[in-house]
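Dear all,

This email documents one entry for the complex benchmark we are building for the journal club exercise. For each entry we list the sequence lines for every component of the assembly. Then comes the predicted three-dimensional structure of the complex as a token string, followed by one or two observations. Please use this as the template for your own entries, and keep the labels exactly as they appear.
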Amino acid sequence: MSDSSLSQPSRSDRLFSSGSLGEMIFRSLCFSAATLTLVAMAGIIVSLTIGGWPAFKAFGINFFLSSEWNPVSEIYGAAGPIIGTLITSFLALLLALPLAVGISVFLVEFCPVILARPIAVAVELLAGIPSIVYGMWGLFVLAPWFAHYIQFPLLMNLSSDSWLGKMVAGVPNGANILTASLILAIMILPYMASVFRELFLTVPAQVREAAYGLGATPFEVVRSVIIPYVKRGLIGVIMLGLGRALGETMAVTFIIGNTHSLPHSLFDSGSTIASTIANEFTEATSEMHSAALTALGLVLFMITFLVLILARLLIGKRS
Amino acid sequence: MVKKIAALIGFVSLLGSTAYATTISGAGATFPAPVYGKWANSYRSQTGVVINYQPIGSGGGIKQIKASTVDFGASDKPLKVEELSKDGLYQFPTVMGGIVPIINLPGLRSGRLHLTGSILADIYLGKITKWNDPRIASINPWLKLPPVPITVVHRADGSGTSFQFTSYLTLKSPEWASRVGASDAVQWPIGLGGKGNDGVAAFVKQTAGAIGYVEYAYTRQSTVPYALIANSEGRFPHPSTESFKAASASADWTHAAGNNISLLDQKGSESWPIVSTTYILLHRTPSKPDTTAEILKFFDWGYQNGDQDALSLDYAPLPKEVKTFIRQQWKTEVQVNGKAVYSAR
């Protein structure tokens, strides 16, 4: 292995050393593909900042703190959509994570060969469903079911003064923060589960066999060998799942109820940044309205960006 | 392989042949998109002119015609005269529609529940919270109204429908006017938002005690019963293309500056109170007069031949006199170097 450095020139040598014309074209094509992404991202940030600047300038810190969103009097405070985005995404993650881990551990550790393929295919199929279909399913199937079998009974049986009663207060029609989070969880689940499975498969068979050889139970193997082995990868996948949940638009728009005020309970209607933009951008005729929506876009970009940075920090640099 | 190449050549030549036909692009309001689409289809088969209409929303339509990225814009919300003159634009109406409140109450049939504008405003303000409220009960003595709480449903997306509905509430309730106002999107005091007409209809259908408002066409498709609203003469006509026409017949079109006309709460015992018309936006002095002439020709064709198509899609055609008035207006309003771009015969 130590000899490989002799035969392989370093990266910078590879970038600048001359070769045949074909090689050079190939290199520059790869280089421009990589830089194009950077340029596009910088362009997006710049245009979002310029577009949203009037809103930041007019409302300052109140843009983040106020939950008054009033297109008629041109006052825009985005606390409602920002909080809504964070709550639904984290709830979705909370719901999807144990399921994703369960699915992938089962597939890798316990699954009979005959079942492994159908389950893996089903998980991948879930990932292929367009988000608008999830939205319609949520609106026409999940919401009424949820209202009838969960919201109504809870509303009838819990005192409205109790802590739990306050958490479930709201109009029983299934359009609320919790159902939106449920839909989001279903949407990020297949992605997380399939990458988890790939991760678990990277654990060398010898390590696993050795643990079993020492008399560990399957649970102990998963907890003390497999999970620690892929811990960094796990965090990365969780963060990417969160990123997907933060930006999801269509499915959430259908089912969250779309009110700009701060949600008071899990069963209250709310809104997210993406759903607000999708709802209002087409008909935003005034300049400040467009600016406020563009500023929201920038806020969402920043939140996603922070999540990715956090993921990097948690994963740490590869040694 | 040879077959594939032959097919490809055939396909390319097909593309080539369509490129020769005149293509007109328009963008804007979603509400009239079905009828424009139907007109465009018939018009294309008769004249070969292709009308490419993109229903991107009124806001987008206004922006695009101002930037001249499309040949015509379309909006459900008429522009004010100042805004028209600032950007050198001209607007004219095409078809009308009505907005209808829908209600989900057990056992309620369409047209049985009566409401007034001020009751509707107080429901949407959250001041009337139960269906057996004395104010509702007193004008519906034939109904046994349950003590069910009212769930208010409104549009979540910015929409011309919301603009007309909130304009009507503004007209009927001083408190609504001062607290909320009229716009495509407002700060709703209460309630939850559904996406699109079908989103509102779905929430109302799924929630006992819910009230929402939708375009007339959706009351015909859906099974949710509609309520009647008192018109300016205190009568309760049913929503129909007839009662929308009645409202437009009472309106004073010829004196509306910039054709900016409100059909809300018009006189006439048969007039439905929430009626609106949708508009086409053009440059007053077009840089491409030939294209603009084609656009006017198309809508002229629509005025003369499109009524059945409009009615079949639950739009109300404009009254005959209004069409004649607008067709004459084109000669003086859209000109290049003092000459009419298109003269309707």
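Observations: Residues 1-5 of chain A have pLDDT under 50 and may be disordered. Chain A is about 75% helix and 0% strand.
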